[in-house]
Structure formats: C-alpha cells, structure tokens
Amino acid sequence: MAEAEEQEEESEEEPKLKYERLSNGVTEILQKDAASCMTVHDKFLALGTHYGKVYLLDVQGNITQKFDVSPVKINQISLDESGEHMGVCSEDGKVQVFGLYSGEEFHETFDCPIKIIAVHPHFVRSSCKQFVTGGKKLLLFERSWMNRWKSVVLHEGEGNIRSVKWRGHLIAWANNMGVKIFDIISKQRITNVPRDDISLRPDMYPCSLCWKDNVTLIIGWGTSVKICSVKERHASEMRDLPSRYVEIVSQFETEFYISGLAPLCDQLVVLSYVKEISEKTEKEYCARPRLDIIQPLSETCEEISSDALTVRGFQENECRDYHLEYSEGESLFYIVSPRDVVVAKERDQDDHIDWLLEKKKYEEALMAAEISQKNIKRHKILDIGLAYINHLVERGDYDIAARKCQKILGKNAALWEYEVYKFKEIGQLKAISPYLPRGDPVLKPLIYEMILHEFLESDYEGFATLIREWPGDLYNNSVIVQAVRDHLKKDSQNKTLLKTLAELYTYDKNYGNALEIYLTLRHKDVFQLIHKHNLFSSIKDKIVLLMDFDSEKAVDMLLDNEDKISIKKVVEELEDRPELQHVYLHKLFKRDHHKGQRYHEKQISLYAEYDRPNLLPFLRDSTHCPLEKALEICQQRNFVEETVYLLSRMGNSRSALKMIMEELHDVDKAIEFAKEQDDGELWEDLILYSIDKPPFITGLLNNIGTHVDPILLIHRIKEGMEIPNLRDSLVKILQDYNLQILLREGCKKILVADSLSLLKKMHRTQMKGVLVDEENICESCLSPILPSDAAKPFSVVVFHCRHMFHKECLPMPSMNSAAQFCNICSAKNRGPGSAILEMKK
C-alpha cells in the first residue's frame, strides 16, 4: 500500500492527496505479469502488460474484459473521448485499432517496434477516423471514403518517437531531439521545442507530455519542465509562417527526474524518479518515487506538497518504468509501475477531519465538520464532539470539557446524563455543574440532586449558588431541604446554609419558615419576600424584629399596608419598645397629621424622650395635642422654647415673654416674639424689663424702630447709663426714620400720578355719549324709558353709571346739596354716578 513519507516525523503540514493501491483484478494480474502502460477513461481503465495482454478494468480494479494482443510487451494504449474505440501498439510492431462495441478494426504489423499510438479524440465520428503511430517515424493513418486506410509520414529522421499526445486539432510528440506540435487542420508543424539535457538517454529518461487544455502543453524531460501556450499568429505576421506559434510561458528545473505530469487546476502534479546515495556504501540506489504538487511560476516553482510512495519493487525500477495517468473529471491520478498501480486522490473534507483527529486537533475537526456537514460522509459531528470531550477529560481540562458539553450534547438528555456519570466517576461533578441544562432538555431529578449533594459535602457557597441559579422544579425540594437540615445539626449557625434553607422554603411555598430565617439572619430580602408573597399576616407578631433589622424600610412597609396591619396593632406590638414606637408614629405624623391623632398625647412624651428637635415642629403642626399636658411635660423637663410656644398658644403671652427674657436672656428672640404677637402691652413689658439692662436696650434700639416709637424707649433711659454701641444704634434709628420718610414720599408720588391718570380716564369716559333706545327701562318704574309715541314730549335722566330714570320718577334733590345721585349705585357717597345727563324733548 502506498503511504506518504513526511519530511519531519512530527510535521504539522496536512498532505494534499491520499493514496490507495488499486487491487482486486490488478493484484491478480501483477502477480503473474508486469504492467507496461495504462490509459484512463472516466468510465474504465485499460492496462497493458509485458506479456502482451490488455485488460479493461473498472475503477475498483476488477477485470471486465481481456485482449490477447501480442506475445510481447504492450507499449501504449489509446482511447478516444467516447471510450468506444481503442488503439494498441506492441514491441513486435503490431498495431490494432478497434471498436470495443463494434466490429470495425485496423490490424497492421510493422517491421520495427511501435512505441506509441494515439487515436483521434473524436474517432467515433466518421469524419475523424484518424490515428498516429510512432516508431522510427511518425505516421498518420486516415480512413478514405472506400474504408481503406492510407498513411502519411508526419516526421522522421530524428530517432525513435517515444511519446505522443493528441488534443483537439493538435498532435504533440517527442523524439530524440525534442518536442514537435502538428496542426491537423492546416497540415503544418507549428513548433519545435528542443530538449535541454542531451546527456540523458531518451530511452531511459523519456519525455512526459500532457495537455492542460486545448492550447496549453506541459513538457517534462529530465529535470526540466516547460509550459507552452499555442497562440494564433496575427495576419500581418504570417507571410510563409504557420498560422499558429508556441510561446513558453513558464520554465523551471525540478530536483528529481520526471516520470509523469498531470494538471491540477492551476497547479501541476509531478511524478519523479529519485536516486539517492547510501550513507553506508556511498553507492547510488533507487529510492521511492515522489509525487509532488507544485505551483508553476514564470521562471521557478513553489512546492505545495511532496509525498514519497512505497510501491512494490521500487528498488529495481528505472525512470522509464513509471507512468502517471489521470482522470480529468474526478482529479484521480494513477501511478503505474511494473508491479503496482497506486491511485492518488484529492483529499476531501472527511480526509481533512481524519488528519485533524489523528493530530488530536479536535476543536478544528469539530469546526470543519460543522462547516461542511452537508459534504462529509464518514464522520458525524456528534461523534467528533464526544471524542473531543474525552480527549479534554483525559488531558485534565475538566472545565473546558464541561463547557464544550453545552455545544456538543445540545438537547440530548441521554448523552447529558451519560457525561454527568462519567464526570462523577472521575470526581469532577463540580466542573460540569455550571453547564447543565436547566430548561430544554430537563434531566432526571436524581442528576441535579447528585450534584447538589456533592457541593453540600464540600462547598457551601457553591451549593448556595446552585440553589439560587437552578429552578426549584429541577430536583426534589424536600430531599434537599432534609439534607440541609441534617448539615445544620452539625453547624446550626452557618449563615450560608440558613440562607439557602430559607430559599428552599420559599421554593416550597413555606414562607413562614423562610421569613423566620431571614429575620434571624437580618437578610435584606426579607421585605421583598413579604411584599412578593403577601406575608403580612405572618409578620404581625414579628414587627419588633423587622424594626430592629431596618426601621426605615419596616415603617415604610407598615404604613404602605395599613389595610393589612392596622396602626393600633403596630403601636400595641411596639409598646415595650418606645424608641421604635416613636419612629413609627413620627413617620405616620409626617404622612398625615390626623391619622394617628389618638396617639398625639403619647407622642409628646416620646418626642421629649427620643427626639426633642422634632418636638416643637410637632406641637406647631398638631391640632389634637392636649396643650396642658404638653405644657406640663415641657415645664418638667425645662424645655424653654417649647414652653414659650405653648404659653403663647394658650394666650399667656406675657408669661411667655417673661420666660424668654428671664430664662433665655435673648433680646432678639424677645423682640421677635413681640413682633409676632403685635401687642402694645408686650412691647411695654419688654421695655420695662430691658430698661436697666444696657445690652437689651441696644437690641431694642436696633430693632424697635418699625413697631414702636423709639422716643418712648429713649426717654426712659436713665442719665449716665452706659449703653454699648449707642451711637450706632441711634444712627440706625435715624436711618430707618429717613428711609420711612423716603418710602412715604415715594408712595405719595406714585399715588398722585395714578390718581391723576385715573381721573383723566374717568373724565374721557364720562364725556362719551350714552345710547338710549326702546330696550332700556326706567330703573324706578321699570317701564320703557322712551314713550311709545315719539311725538309726545318726555324727559329722561341718564347717570354715568348707565342707570336711567324718567325725570318724574327721581326724587327731588335735598336742600343741602343741589347734586343729584343715582339711587341704585351712588345713594350715599359720591361716585361715578354723581354726574347727570338730562335728555328732554
């Protein structure tokens, strides 16, 4: 069997071709005979042997037909494109061309060995019954209209013809001197490509020819490769020259002797004969032949891949013993040697995956399979994935292996369970736990319980994380609850276990137990749990615990749900914890001053004890607070400000003022209090109290000016009394007085200007006429103001206020004032209606 030899033992470069030995009938043939030549058709193979036999084979190497052509070596076999006609030549000069499925044939025996034969590619057509043979000369045979064959010598005199290839209308052949190309249409030879190394024997190192397409010929001879392109000559250049010419587009040397060529897309497949020198004997010996894929460039080439082939009997073979045939349609390459036929194929995606798996590149193999899943035949994505997981596990990459399970196992519950048990066997359940499916699919509850027990034994935090992340319906909740409780017997204060147990109780809808644990742990989720599951009936006896945990959140929750837990109930529960009771009642009062009115008396003591800064605001805002009780408490505790407020609110302003002055000694507050009460007697008391206290006098002088005449205070000051900052105080009094005078004058100017403007406006308005028509009535008698008979005389009085009267309906003006006023709007005072418009006719 053929195998590839890598240049380095651990090479990471993937081969381009794969090889297999053509067996079955071929094996039987080559056990008794030796292969001399072969040609390839898309449908079958034709193999010639040294004993003059020609075998037709299928692509698996099975014999389908056998021809005994000659007792000596078959030199060449040629098939037309249809595969219906075959030409054969042998070493004893025999030439046969015959139809495989028809009776037509040509038989001829020449007096010299015939080395080559090529039938017309379209030999099946009646107009193309042509073939060429080559020995010492190249002959073209053509059947005439009377079914007779006539021959024409195309070339001779340059040694034996050893290779020929016919493509379209062009025939290329090689003799001892070089390569010629003949145009069958124009009957002209269009080129001669001389061989480079004339030192090589042409019979031992024959020329290899192949057509890449109808105009591109590839020549390999010795170590030289030439790529020739047949081009049309321009009409202006023809003269006596052929209509076509050949241009060598690429030429380069190879490392070894060429035994065969074949095209592969824009690359070349080259079969090379290799000779190497033994390190021990220093003698030259025949090494294994090589099959290289190269990329031709203009003057050099790039090696893509190179494989050494182990063919049977390679040690005795020569360069001429190897042939390279190929099937254009399927990119199959046949390496023919006397004792072996090896088939080289382009590697497909399955082969690529095989190579990746062999190199343990499982991730790349998996990716390649996913990309080409429609084209792969021998591999399954799942099998590759499972092999990848096993490889990772063997290598100890447990986390990566577990993570890959998500992608590879997908929704296959049975495979998931199998992998979980495998991870259990190697003690790596923790590694796979984060990646277990939690929805589609759902595994057996036992799988999840097994992993939870694993964590419970060694990792409380990990156990808690899984309980939080996994839905409660994945496992038997009661089993896990019991397991946690068993562990709590050993460590009853473990907060992680207690919290997890509370979560399990919540999943099980055992909210009472869950709430109790949360409160014990003072866990932040306790309020969320109460709201989410409406557990207010369960917390009526746990209000103190809630308040101890977070009084702000607890109070807000209780006030937001008064319909579920009444204010009375909360206050009763907090009776033994007055500081918490105060927090609750204070927030209640802030929300609504009237809801907790029954507790306002209690709140006085609570504020006095726990929150004095908010006592005075409470007393000011509450309308339900008993003032006598409040005054008693404040006086007992000597709360001066609160006592002052209560005394003033109860009407005892003089006592309040006295307390400010005697207890607080704060003249500014006393003055402020007197201003608020706006009571002259209080000002008098304040002056009397302050008259013998110079600092108080200074305060009064600075602030009294706008409420009391400063002269009253100044006259009472004793002569010789030293008053601090007296000058400044007097200056301020004078400045305040001047300011008042200026303000009065300014206001007077504004009032005068406004009065004058309004007077002018009123005058303009009163100067306007007033419309009187039939719709107007007398405001006294309520009859129409105008008589129905316009010819009768009438007298009407119209006031500027638009009220109208018959003159006779108005009362006579008094003796004291001749002015007449509208009885309706200006009966007593002069106003807009004082002026009169009188209409007479």
TrEMBL record:
All copies of domain RING-type, residue ranges: 778-826
CHCR repeats mapped onto the chain: 555-699
GO biological process: cellular response to starvation; endosomal vesicle fusion; macroautophagy; protein targeting to vacuole
UniProt-recorded Gene Ontology molecular function terms: zinc ion binding
Alphabetical list of CDD domains matching this protein: RING-H2_Vps41 (cd16690)
Subcellular locations according to the entry: Cytoplasm, Cytosol; Early endosome membrane; Endosome membrane; Late endosome membrane
One annotated Gene Ontology cellular component of this protein: late endosome membrane
Presence of the UniProt keyword Membrane in the record: yes
InterPro entries tied to this protein: Beta-prop_Vps41, Clathrin_H-chain/VPS_repeat, TPR-like_helical_dom_sf, Vps41, Vps41/Vps8, WD40/YVTN_repeat-like_dom_sf, WD40_repeat_dom_sf, Znf_RING
SUPFAM superfamilies in UniProt: RING/U-box, WD40 repeat-like
Topological category with respect to the lipid bilayer: Peripheral membrane protein
Keyword annotations of the record: Autophagy, Cytoplasm, Cytoplasmic vesicle, Endosome, Golgi apparatus, Lysosome, Membrane, Metal-binding, Protein transport, Transport, Zinc, Zinc-finger
One Pfam family, short name: TPR_Vps41
Family affiliation: Belongs to the VPS41 family.
Its biological purpose: Plays a role in vesicle-mediated protein trafficking to lysosomal compartments including the endocytic membrane transport pathways.
Official protein name in the record: Vacuolar protein sorting-associated protein 41 homolog
Lineage, top ranks: Eukaryota, Metazoa, Chordata, Craniata, Vertebrata
